[in-house]
Automatic annotation (TrEMBL):
<dbReference type="InterPro" id="IPR035959">
    <property type="entry name" value="RutC-like_sf"/>
</dbReference>
<protein>
    <recommendedName>
        <fullName>RidA family protein</fullName>
    </recommendedName>
</protein>
<dbReference type="InterPro" id="IPR006175">
    <property type="entry name" value="YjgF/YER057c/UK114"/>
</dbReference>
<dbReference type="Pfam" id="PF01042">
    <property type="entry name" value="Ribonuc_L-PSP"/>
</dbReference>
Length: 129
């Protein structure tokens, strides 16, 4: 295995055989991250809280790799509808504005009905990683 793997403890990482993030070749690739709240072990009902959790979980993975949200270069956002996208725009801006990553947003049905948003990210790794 090349590079470093970062795990969040999500049962799906073990079940499906993936890492929360992979550090390789000067990049940090963060898997699609949902709005799961690791402390309550639940998904909030509203899309805004789920989106906040997505970015919080991404930030934790990046910190474990020695990076921050300021190091983001690309995000891909999957959201269930145009209406929900409009509701999370301020949250995306809050977490991405400083880095100004490239962004693709896709309307999609997610893997479970209670999931309303999922964010995938790529960041520049700190020097030497």
């Amino acid at each position: 295995m090349q590079g470093e793997r970062i795990f969040s403890g999500s049962p799906y990482e073990e079940k499906a055989g993936y890492a929360r993030a992979a550090v390789a070749g000067g990049w940090i690739f963060v898997s699609g991250t949902t709005g799961f709240d690791a402390q309550t072990k639940e998904f909030p009902a509203d899309v805004e809280a789920q989106c906040e959790n997505c970015f919080r979980n991404i930030e934790i993975a990046l910190e474990r790799a020695g990076a921050t949200l300021k190091d983001l270069v690309r995000v891909q956002i999957f959201v269930t509808s145009q209406e929900e996208f409009e509701r999370i725009i301020p949250i995306i801006r809050k977490h991405c504005y400083e880095a100004r990553p490239a962004n693709t947003t896709v309307f999609a049905q997610l893997v479970a009905p209670h999931m309303r948003v999922e964010v995938e990210a790529i960041a520049v790794a700190p020097s030497g990683k």
